[in-house]
Amino acid sequence: MKIYVFWTIFALFVFFPISLLVLQSFTSPGSLTDVSALGWEELFGRRRLLEATGVSIVIGFFVVVCNLAIGLSAGKALALYDFFGKTVVDTLFVMPLLLPLLAITFGLHIAMIRIGLADTAAGVVFIHLVPTIPYSIRIFRNGYVSLGKRMQEQGEVLGASVWRTFLDIELPLLRSSIQSVIFLTFVISLSQYVITAIIGGGSVVTLAMVYFPFLSSANTSLVAAFSLWFALLPLLFYIGAEGLLRLFPYQRKVRR
Amino acid sequence: MTPFVRVDKASKRFGANEIFRNVSFRLEEGQIFSVLGPSGGGKTTLLRCLAGLETLSSGELFINDENLTRVKANVRQVSLVFQEPLLFPHMTIRENVGYGLKFLKLNKKEKNRRVSEFLQTVGLSDFGDRYPRELSGGQKQRVALARSLILTPKLLLLDEPFSSLDRELRVEMRRWVRLLLKEQNITAVFVTHDQDEAIQMGDVIGVFREGTFEQIGSPEEVYENPSTLAIARFFGDAWVVDENSYIPRRHLYLKRNEDHAKVQWKGDIAGIRFIQGLAFTEVLLTTSERIVIYTPEDYQEGEKVFVTADPSYIRDFHRTGERG
């Protein structure tokens, strides 16, 4: 019974809309039967499309890397260590989610102008950390809580350094958390429009900046093709990241 | 000869909370030291300090005349087997056993040879390519032991490693582990709250109470000559006469008549108990204490008797303090 409900919902809300999108992207605007590749042709005919895609991927990559570094270390500290002011720090880490992102961006914009980060890709990476880091810390914190301290201590007792324990034990066992963070942060970074526009000041053009003006376009084939292209990116990035993850020790053997 | 392992006046505090204090002991190479004490008495913290996972607040640890007090856990040649097996779930049994060898300068062939050898030693040769979740509790604990032993640590610490196993398996594992440690000539500290286990495993027993050793000695010594009232009560095998003296229980017998030349306690026969095929008589004393005594004679339930002992067997508690 449950399985039928699942497939019905899946068909209705996932499969059907996406098929429509695919179908529309290969047909003329407003028709689903008149086959035409004009939507895709026009999409790749855009001068800035590939450039913006590249910029988005590079920015997304650095956002993911920063999230992994900060999330893993902060999550570990919150999960496994006791220190003075832990609850305060813990609360501060979620604050960015409780305040309106725009308010934070305006404030940071002024600071970035002063230190010269405004209108740069680095500044955009930086501002993308605001809506992503709190999630990463949460995810890794939970990962480390369920992993516990004992496994690392066992590694240490057997002669592993802190770095080796991290590589051989923590990374493989935190794999599902790492996968979630990679996917989640990349998608969030990719979809940022307003804060990218403010901090990037028009000189950093990401895919979202090219995409949004199209939403009101009458050319539905082009918008459909663009949407698919947009949705394909996180998937490709995820597959690439998976490939990289497999290079770490003991990764190939994780079975769940 | 200087002792192989030497712990001098070790103590550990967490803030104002004192976990243990003034802990000293010495071990010869290949000796197994049972640390017996109630749960939550700081035994685990003591092991963690010896392993280097915690630092001592004061005191020192020497192994083979080398001061290891400030040496980090991963370079200290001390291995700790935890209460749970803590096998790495993402590694095969072979990889688990061989994990510590990665950090030694050995070639691959030698590593493989050693892993095979130790898998054989713990009787799990056929399990090398399995994952930990496919093993039973006892097998996992054996892998955990092999993983530590393969590094030939100078000191092996075991923190109640059998407590998660069922009774029968536990008894079997004790015999097996002791034999294995003796075979490999490993110096070990074995922590337990089980008196039988401590006696069965240890060459030396240390009774650990309230954060320090109350008595250290051979199993016979501790059993026969408890140095304090608390140890006598804890071991439960010395008959406590009063605060200062006791009689080893095997010197007690039953008598129907009063005898003023002996020390006696009056009571009624409460029942017969069979232990290991022998009939023991349970006596309810007038002080409402119960005592179980082996006697070849037949007694009827409810009969008045005197638990009797020769006064010459009365011994005084004496604090022997720490050895060495």
TrEMBL record, chain A:
Subcellular location: Cell inner membrane; Cell membrane
CDD domains (UniProt xref): TM_PBP2
A single GO cellular-component term on record: plasma membrane
Pfam family for this entry, one: BPD_transp_1
ABC transmembrane type-1 domain sequence ranges: 53-241
GO biological process, one term: transmembrane transport
Membrane spanning stretches: 57-81, 93-115, 121-140, 181-214, 226-248
InterPro entries: MetI-like (IPR000515), MetI-like_sf (IPR035906)
Annotated PROSITE patterns: ABC_TM1
Membrane-topology annotation of the record: Multi-pass membrane protein
Keywords: Cell inner membrane, Cell membrane, Membrane, Transmembrane, Transmembrane helix, Transport
Signal peptide positions (record): none
Main localization, broad class: membrane
Entries under Gene3D superfamilies matching the protein: MetI-like
Family to which this protein belongs: Belongs to the binding-protein-dependent transport system permease family.
Name of protein: Putative spermidine/putrescine transport system permease protein
Organism of derivation: Salimicrobium flavidum
Phylogenetic lineage: Bacteria, Bacillati, Bacillota, Bacilli, Bacillales
UniProtKB/TrEMBL annotation, chain B:
Residue ranges occupied by any ABC transporter domain in the UniProt entry: 5-235
EC assignment: 7.6.2.9
Span of the signal peptide: none
UniProt cross-references to InterPro entries, sorted A to Z: AAA+_ATPase, ABC_SmlMolc_Importer, ABC_transporter-like_ATP-bd, ABC_transporter-like_CS, P-loop_NTPase
The keyword Nucleotide-binding appears for this protein: yes
GO molecular function, one term: ABC-type quaternary ammonium compound transporting activity
Keywords assigned by UniProt, alphabetized: ATP-binding, Nucleotide-binding, Transport
Cross-referenced PANTHER family: SPERMIDINE/PUTRESCINE IMPORT ATP-BINDING PROTEIN POTA, SPERMIDINE_PUTRESCINE IMPORT ATP-BINDING PROTEIN POTA
Subunit details: The complex is composed of two ATP-binding proteins (OpuCA), two transmembrane proteins (OpuCB and OpuCD) and a solute-binding protein (OpuCC).
Protein name per Swiss-Prot or TrEMBL: Carnitine transport ATP-binding protein OpuCA
